Amino acid sequence: MERAGIRRQKVVYSRNFFRYNEYPLCLGQAMRQREERMKWEVKGMKRKMAFLLAVILTVSVSLMAYAVEADSVGQGQQNGAVSQDTEGEQDTRTVSGAVEPGTAQTPGEAGNPGEGSGPNGGAGNSGAQQEAPDGSSAQNPEGTGNITGNQTGGSGETGSSAATQDPSDAGAAQGTGTAQDPSGSGTTQGTGTAQDPSGSGTSQGTGTAQDPSGSGTTQGTGTAQDPSGSGTSQGTGTAQDPSGSGTTQGTGTAQDPSGSGTSQGTGTAQDPSGSGTTQGTGTAQDPSGSGTSQGTGAAQNPSGTGTSQGTDAAAGSGTVQGVQQPDAGGTAVRTAPEHTGQVDVCIGVAQVLNKAAEFHVALKGASVDKSDVIRVGGDSIGKGTVHFEELPDGEYRLTVSARGYATYSQTVKVEGGAYKVNLLTGFQEGMPYEAGKAHPGVLAIGDVAGGDGVINEADKTAMVDAVDQGAGSDLTDLNGDGIVDLADLEYFARTYNDPRDMQAGVEKAVPRSVITAAAGNGTQVEGDMQALLGNDGSVILRQAEGKDISESNPVILNFEFNGSRASTTMDGIIIGNKSDNPVIKMAVNIVYLDENGIEQPPVEKEFTIEGENGLSLVLEESVVEAKRDGQGNIRLYLGGQIAVKRVTLIIKGTRQSSNLAEISKVEFVNGMEERIPEPQMDIPKNLAAVAGSQQISLTWDPCVNVTGYEVAIRQEGRETDTIMVTGNSLVITSYLDDELTNYEKYLVKVQAVNGAWRSGYGEEVEAIPQPGGRPDPPDNVKAVGQLRSIAVSWKKMEDTLSYNVYFKEKESGDDAYQKIASEIKENSFTIPDLKDLTAYNVYVTGVNELGESGPSLVALATTTDSEPAVMIKYKRINVGEPGEKSAHIISAVTNRISSMKDSPLDTEANTAWGTVDNDPKSYYTVNSWDDGGFNALGNHGLIYEFDEAYMMDRFAFHDVTSRDTGYSYVKVRYWDEDGNATDIPRMWLTRMADKDGRTYYMVKLPQAVKAKKIQFGVARTVASGTVSISEVYFYYYDSLFDDIMALYQDDLHMVLKSEVTQETIDALRTRINTPDEVSGELHPDRQLLERELKNAEDILKAADLSEPVRIHSTITAASDGGKKFGGLNAWQPLGVTAAAGDKIVVYVGHNTLATGSDAKLRLIATQYNSEAAAMYKVVQTLKTGANEITVPKIWDLDYESGGALYVEYTGDSADDQYAVRVSGGVQVPILDLYHVTDEAERMAKTVAYVEKLGTYVSQMETLHQTEHHDSDNALMAGREYKNETCILGASDILLDTMMLSLPAQQIWAGSGENGEDTQSRARTILTSMDAMEDMMYLFYQHKGLNANAPDQVDKIPACHQNIRYQRMFADAFMYASGNHIGIGWGSTGGMVNCGSLVFDEKGIYQSGNYFGWGIAHEIGHCINQGAYAVAEITNNYFAVLAQAKERNDSVRFKYENVYKKVTSNTSGRASNVFTQLGMYWQLHLAYDNGYNFRTYADYNEQLANLFFARVDTYSRTTSKAPAPGGTALTLDGGTDQNLMRLGCAAAEKNILAFFERWGMTPDEGTRSYAAQFPTETRAIYYVNDEARAYRVEHGDTGSVLGTEGTVDAVGDSVAARHVEANKVEISLSSKGIPAEDVLGYEIVRCIYEGGKVQKEVVGFAEGGTATYTDVIATINNRTVFYEVTLIDKYLNRSAVKELAPVKIEHDGSLDKTGWTVSTKDLAVEGETGTGSSNNTLYCDPDNETTYAKDNLIDNKSDTVFTATAGQAPEIMLNFNKNLIVAGFKITAGSGLAGVDYQIVTYGGEVPVSVAEGTFGAAAVQTIHFANSAGKYISTHEANAVKLILKPAAGSQVSIAELDVLGVTGDNVDFRRTSDDNSAVIGILSEDFKYGDNAEDVIPAGAIVFAGAYKGNAAYNSVLLFDQDGNNVGRVTGTGDEVQVEASSIIMADVPEGGDITDVRNGTWIYWVDAGTDLSGVKKVRAELYRVNDAQTQAGQRVVSDSLFETMPEVLPSVTLDRDAGLQK
């Protein structure tokens, strides 16, 4: 034989024993070794014509009980470390400091407060505390401290608005929030945040104090006393501290009778004695000799000499400094505790754990018993550390245990230092696990049987059984991937019976308790210095003056040591350094003690970086050595052990030459050489990032010695997000929990992970995701007129590179629009150089490289001029000439110094004449947003005194701009003529405008007052900006308004007083029309007053008046707390639409409140047809009686401004009876059916509404003309009527659970669909409203809400959902947002003509429909329960609930796709949102006990019968959930975990298998909660609508199968047939069961692996008789058989039927799962593009959409893609992963014969053309990628393949299917005899010599098996198995010592290179010794194995197997020859 190759194997098996080793990655896949543990000895020789490779495999293993107990494992250690008795008894292991030195890591203290969340950062300012109106933080630049609302701080206990941290012994004082003191001196709380990790307490602002220690803290508002010796006292009254070292502070008087006290004024004081800090805004006095004082600001003083800062004088010896400035000599050194011993335990993962493991760590000594918990794996993947501190010297027993792990124990000897024990969950590659060598300890996983903390034979058996059965518990799912399979067996085998040493080496260090850390001179610190010592958190160091770190401007860290010599001895320092900006130059200054304890002079050494990579440090002097390790840490070797007193680290430069350095840890090590070495790991290379739309695809070269990879993604200036993966690729779609944003740059890098170690990151690459289409038009365009310019702003849009702004004068035509020339990058722009007082239209477009968007909505703005606002002069008091002081004012003052600008009259300090000088150029200004208008008025604002007392009820002012700059609040104080002051509470300002739109503000007092002097202060809406006032006008009181209001005797102005006559009214009308004598102006509210007189006349003449609206006091948000969903709205319509700028009067009446009382009603103004972001505004809280209102302008668009008015009841009493009437605006018909239950009454109300509506709609255009077009309102005058935007259309229909706010015209049009007469219209509307209420009732039923529920939280909401006519954004026709659902014009009419849905008393659908999918979809968005809501999925549950009709075709998803998902064995959600919906729907079908539309009045019935009613109830109140095993429900696991827990609670069964089928992975908390319920036995993942209906109809007891799964019901004729290359067809039928009971059949594919059966669910075939086709592309040349289980409609299982096996042999077609296809220049008739909308709020309600191109890869030859070719047609197949490809197959439809083609692969740096040619006429054509030599198939690694077609343009192209071929793979089979074609099995008739050596002989008499083989002899081997999965061979030994012996050879043409991808043919021969008893072998089959490395056998796995062959009863004679000829 030419180049014959023979490979011999002698095989010795230990029967049923297994071993899995971890091997490197091969072709991106982790390959597993077969079960037999093998050791290979390879001998080889190469001759001219033949290559002989003999492999002898031997195994001899003894199994024994095994416990991972440190005392009984390993071979012993010298020097007292570890030893083991050979009899297995325990020896005490002693770890001493001298023998096992190491490093300890200590944690930070218990709390970590927020880092300066005040508005000016840092610690904030002290002084007067103020509140911002919007709940945010504000800064008062006047020096009065922080203005703070409800802002949360950094990472403190409760959050803060300002934070001060004092790491010294003295404590800190500060502002508003929560303080935590983890030390022994207590905790204080107020409204700031303080932390004092030292021993001396903390004090702070007003709040609650808690003192857990013996030296507590007290504080409060009043008098506080602290009798302790080191306490703290404070308050706003008088504080007294009788102790000797206390702290006092407050706004009152502080007294400290001790010798070291502190006193101060307004602000905060802290005791400066000893080492304290004081602060305040006054002058602080320090009676002691070493104190500190300060003014405005916050101080942090970790040193002992104190720090003070501020603007006031301070007495004492402290240093006045603006930043933290401790120095080495002044650091306050902590007192070492009595005991300094410390044991740290660090646990890390050695392999990827998808579920968390909770390790209980216990440490016990003679007088110590401590414990803690470490959680690793799952979301906590990485490592965790616990610290046991202040331990007395002695021996301690460390025990570590966890569920599923062997218990680990170890003895640790403590002698004053810190000792660290590193443990890993398994062995770590590259570590020397030998006794006496430092390595991590091993926590062995696999205690799955008894839970006894020991891993033994019982655990092995349990694991094997679980894998064999393909099912197990969460215990046997060792890797936590949700599947019990060979991967879990591999995890078990990694540590089982491993003889290596598992005992941890102990690292020794200096304990943290003897170290005090502080920043040095000129250094600012961000972070916790003490945490730095424990590797528990990093700190950022900055140069105090903001300069870059350099030689002359270093940053400094000081460390003081105060302990015994034993505790402070070290020989090295490890400094953790941020890798992206490493330190490149530093010095270390060390003060140490000699052997006599004498302090030595400091030694300072400087280090610099060598090499561009910064991998090493070189010492300028040779005593101390420094290196940078693979983790980026700087390691300083001190050259020997020394007792250290002080260490100073001086950092002089970083690589990026920046002004900051980040240090993650500082460890002081005693035993640098004994530390555990780092494993050698590759840094990932060739990281490639491919950007898509909102995603980045990453690939990199695989590494060896790794358990996974950590991918880091970041953006400049933002934190880094990390992702753990096991493979060498990843698709990133999110960053910091948000979707990736197109056009933003992301930086990505990868490092390899091996347990707790990291390789260090490779090179960082950048990627910028790109969009796939043009951007959407910009939303929320706003335009504000300014001086000769317009400021335009808009929403920053996704996928937009720049913006274009277009504008024109309003009166010009549309062709007059001008485009701003330059591209605009930001989302705002100011259009310059415009005309004064001119109206302009503006719109905006977005632009990217794919084109320009459509235009935005058009905005309108009018430019201003430089003239001041013209304020009302009617009845003005302070008249005068320009530049002169106004009349009647004798004094105008302010307490602000130098606050008057450009005012010649203000020559003296504190005067404000410029505000009343009739000259707008002079003005008052203050650099604050609040001048007393929001917070306390105090001495703020302006004060005016008059020459006498005047009656007045209003005054006005304008600022220096006369524009709307955002003033909202005012406070007023006035003095009467006797000098008595009265404060008027905070009021809203009324914004006014003159005829040209200039802004001024009117202050209307609650009632007229007689004032001799008046003070007022104003504030802005938001806490930013400044205040200015240019002119102030005061007005005489005119009683005209009050006189007209006094005509009525009721608050609603519906009843006149008896004395009112027509003469009374006429006299008042005369006064209205009488101008002011001085100004000549008429009353400014003349129109409003005329309207009131007209109202009085109508009453007098008995004319009809508008009826008041009765307010429903049961509609209130106060009743809806705790429901945990949104969309609710408490508005009630008033039946009035009003234009912006209109003046109206709102009258409020109440059953008990007096006129003028505050009403619990808020007036809401809305914008009709608005955008979601500009829909409404709360105008004000109303009072009983008349409320004069100017309707606000809400938006800037060039459409009518205004809309419907509403009130919102804010009380919570059903006894409140309010009525409201509006004078002004336009009355619009509304329909109020709230709580109207009588059908006749409902019909009557609806008829009346229709009658009014018809009249109203017919008059709308006329009303528009008179009320708006011809009005004096500048915002409405001249506007033409437009049907869709006219605000007169705003009508409302109020129901119990819904309010519809719709266009009146559309209601009228929609109501006429079933008849034009009034009764028909009313019936149509009422039927539709009933349908809406029924639908909402159905939805609320499924949410567990019921009017009869015992708890308010479970009652139907008091508020309603609100469907409103709104303006749509791009591509949407409805949306859900905040408190409403927006719908477009075209959808509104359908809301009133829905018709009814009819169902019977059982809930069975009969006829009709509810509203469309979209409405229910949007309602679902609003009522989704937040704990488990997934947008666009869970909300669709309600949409399908409204439409399902007990038929499979009535739901919007396809059950075919559901079944594909639940049989796919894949993790993660389905890719299609509708398929995902199927999971939620199946839960409803499986557990709801009634038909779809069945509802329940009884609350308990509702809960009992509706699954999601229980889910949502438990979501709202977790305590209601069942906990039969005592494990309470918690919802802290995230959306998926919460759903799984809630699902188990609602089912009261463990249904995790259902969720795992859907791709979810339960975490430990979820498994723990589920474990207390019985396991669900039904196959609920196959339920469909029709099956559920069948079950409900026939009852749960109707199942013939029962629940045991033992009934034989699969038909006898069911069989599998290999029909095509990679397809198996299974015909299905049933028996012994009613045909109508059958739901379908579950198909399980089975293969053999190492003699064992591996099972995989591959599909579900629906129907009683069906055919299932299994398309197999993931395996080839393998034998498969199938198990079929019948599932009935009750979801019970039959007995399993096993089908005869078949062998799969195909052409290498690759699995197309996850592929996507795209086409270019191929037009499909009827298809358009999918659009470029980026709107994620809107979900297309159509059914699941497929495109013709998807037919190309659907594995169906009968679905054909047909298209018209363009000029250059292409088809791209994207694999979305890397594959090895070798060919291409096309199944043609028509039109391809004679067409030229080219095939290109993608995956490397450049595309590769792999084939060209011309298609023939065959239906199926295969193209192999040939190499240049043409000898072998050429393979390519690719992630995509492109087919380029070259047909004639315009021709038709039809393709049925495209396939890509991989390598066909190895194959094994039995050879056949020439006589009877039977398998070659028999007794060798004569010796067969197969090699040149004497031993190369198969002796005669041997039992031989021979077969065909395709593969590579250098990498393959053959094994035989019998029918029971046992190896075939001679059996020796008994029990666990059983061995099976056999031999084999492989003869093949082995390629010289030994390339694993080369494929050849050959023969294998397998034999056992003559006389071997094989009587138990009835059938035999062969398995072919392949390895990656012939020397090490790494990566061994099964690649092919044969069908079973029957063993002959009498073995025939077999003859072999050298040419592999076989004869019988």
Q: Can you describe what's shown?
A:
The protein has 2024 residues and is mainly β. Strand 106 and strand 107 form a beta hairpin. It starts with a strand and ends with a strand. 11% of the residues lie in helices and 33% in strands. Strands 1, 4, 5, 100, 101, 104, 106, 107, 108, 112 and 113 form an eleven-stranded mixed beta sheet that branches.
| Backbone structural class | mainly beta
| Average residue pLDDT | 79
Largest beta-sheet details: 11 strands, mixed
Radius of gyration: 42 Å
Outline type: globular
- Any low-confidence stretches, pLDDT <50, length ≥5? 1-331, 609-622, 1728-1745, 1953-1957, 2020-2024
Relative strand content: 25-35%
Q: How many beta strands in the DSSP annotation? A: 113
Please report the distance between the alpha carbons of the first and last residues. Answer: 21 Å
The helix content is 10-25%
Contiguous helical run count = 21
Q: What secondary-structure arrangement, pairings included, does this model have?
A:
Layout: E1 4-14, E2 25-26, E3 29-30, E4 39-46, E5 50-58, E6 137-139, E7 146-148, E8 163-165, E9 173-174, E10 187-188, E11 193-195, E12 203-204, E13 209-210, E14 224-225, E15 239-240, E16 254-255, E17 307-308, E18 319-320, E19 341-348, E20 356-364, E21 369-377, E22 383-391, E23 394-401, E24 408-414, E25 418-424, E26 441-442, H1 457-469, H2 486-495, E27 506-509, E28 515-519, E29 523-526, H3 529-533, E30 539-543, E31 555-561, H4 565-568, E32 569-577, E33 583-593, E34 603-610, E35 616-619, E36 625-628, E37 634-654, E38 660-669, E39 688-692, E40 695-699, E41 708-714, E42 721-725, E43 729-732, E44 734-735, E45 738-739, E46 746-754, E47 757-758, E48 765-767, E49 782-786, E50 789-793, E51 802-809, E52 818-819, E53 828-831, E54 839-848, E55 851-852, E56 859-862, E57 889-894, E58 900-901, E59 923-926, E60 942-958, E61 967-975, E62 981-988, E63 990-993, E64 999-1020, E65 1027-1029, E66 1031-1034, H5 1040-1045, H6 1062-1072, H7 1086-1100, E67 1109-1111, E68 1131-1139, E69 1143-1150, E70 1158-1166, E71 1176-1183, E72 1185-1190, E73 1202-1209, ...
Helix pairs in contact: 1-2, 6-7, 8-10, 9-10, 14-15, 17-18, 18-20
